[in-house]
Design a protein that fits this description.
about 0% strand; Ribonucleotide Reductase, subunit A; about 325 residues
Length: about 325
């Protein structure tokens, strides 16, 4: 049987548990928070006062902070690309609407709220150039991207396990920075977004655990493959208006590292957490190729730590079109 058919068989075997996993990790629309919970109520007489308060507090937050918040928001707003990608994974049948397709739709519905609330907050803040942000978002969606997973569910679930934890780290750190600047409302908003990301991380991590239980060798090889080529962050494909090729991601990444929102050390820490979560050292029944893959994975964090120590971050901020100089 081909690897593709084995993966399809495993996905079909695990599909019976998807409904219980949806109940375990996702929250119904009737009870989960909504963007309007964190935004001024346009029906209220106090609407303009609330907007004024947001704008006043926004003046206290530094330029680099806004760059990171904008980059996080654009990444969240590119959700249509992520949904279409996952809907094309082997075993996810969007035509027959199987359990996996149901998971992707429900997960997408939760994720959609993140870009929605951040977009509206940025618009009300008065600190950013929304037209330039909207252009970058449109470019990111229309350009598409290749995260190196093909249609392979094993590789895709490694990717989402890693990426959801990375977005948790980013949103959680932004929440702390906002709190340090006495912007408790923005802090709470980013904190609750990070909570969603952590739940989603645990869900995708459990998917991988379940695959390790039934197909350990191929799951190990898929994990090694993804880490060998490195996880490509969605923001890697950012570009500003007028640029066919852009340094936007590199400069966004530099900014995030400079203010400690997401660093090279965080990347290594996430890898170590996944290795521990999936108990890579204890997995049995591996073939020779998978044993070599495990050995590679166990040695990788220390190797990457040495590289992370050599990273030099520019001290000066790059001037993004997203945040105008007049607003500094």
């Amino acid at each position: 049987m081909s690897l593709k058919n084995v993966r399809l068989e495993v996905m079909q075997f695990l599909e019976k548990d998807v409904d219980s996993l949806i109940q375990k990790y996702l929250i119904p629309a009737e009870t989960i928070w909504q963007p309007s919970d964190f935004l001024p109520n346009s029906e209220s007489d106090s609407f303009f006062e609330e907007v004024k308060e947001i704008r006043e507090l926004s003046k206290e937050l530094p330029y680099d902070f806004w760059v990171v918040l904008v980059g996080d928001m654009i990444t969240e707003e590119a959700l249509p690309t992520y949904e279409s990608w996952l809907m094309d994974v082997e075993g996810v049948n969007q035509v027959e609407r199987n359990g996996w397709a149901k998971w992707v739709r429900h997960w997408t519905a939760e994720e959609n709220r993140h870009g929605d609330v951040l977009n509206k907050y940025l618009y009300l803040s008065g600190r950013v150039n929304m037209r330039e942000i909207e252009r970058t978002t449109q470019h990111l969606i229309s350009d598409g991207f290749d995260i190196g997973t093909d249609r392979d569910p094993y590789k895709n679930f490694v990717y989402t396990s890693f990426q959801e934890l990375a977005t948790y780290v980013s949103h959680n750190r932004v929440a702390k920075l906002a709190k340090d600047q006495s912007n408790r409302h923005l802090s709470k908003m980013c904190k609750i977004i990070s909570g969603d990301e952590m739940r989603h991380h645990h869900a995708y991590s459990e998917f991988v655990e379940r695959i390790f239980a039934v197909d350990p060798s191929q799951m190990m090889i898929a994990f090694q493959y993804m880490m060998k080529q490195k996880i490509t962050m969605p923001a890697h494909f950012l570009r500003e208006s007028g640029d066919k090729m852009s340094t936007a991601f590199e400069e966004f990444s530099n900014t995030a590292q400079r203010i400690g929102v997401y660093t090279a050390l965080d990347y290594v820490d996430i890898l170590e957490k996944l290795i521990k979560r999936w108990e890579i050292e204890k997995i049995t029944g591996l073939n020779e190729e998978a044993e070599k893959a495990r050995d590679y994975l166990l040695k990788l964090p220390s190797r990457m730590l040495r590289l992370a120590g050599r990273v030099k971050i520019p001290e000066n901020s790059y001037q993004f079109k997203w945040v105008e100089p007049a607003k500094l």
